[in-house]
């Protein structure tokens, strides 16, 4: 169990006079102690007003082989159009 932490909600993308949007950063060795390693995925769920839950999630499945076939066809079409 870790000790409670206060995390500041920052502002990102502010372009005066337009306001930005909220940004929350989590960083530190304590994340590694919880099993949160680089490259892993988290699921964020709102439990109730003001209460968020973070859980380790499985990575998304790899694209289907059809995706790679379509990418190859697109690459060939782009190469052909650029050579004209």
Short description:
The protein is α+β, with helices and mostly antiparallel strands and 84 residues long. It has 2 helices and 4 strands; from the N terminus they run E-E-H-E-E-H.
Q: What layout of secondary structure does this protein have?
A:
Elements: E1 10-12, E2 21-23, H1 29-33, E3 41-48, E4 51-57, H2 65-83
Antiparallel strand pairs: 1-2, 3-4
Structure description:
With 84 residues, the chain is an alpha+beta fold. It has one domain (10-83). Helices cover 29% and strands 25% of the residues. It has two helices and four strands; from the N terminus they run E-E-H-E-E-H. It has helices at 29-33, 65-83; strands at 10-12, 21-23, 41-48, 51-57. The strands form two sheets. Strands 1-2 form a two-stranded antiparallel ribbon. The protein starts with 9 loop residues before the first strand and ends with a helix.
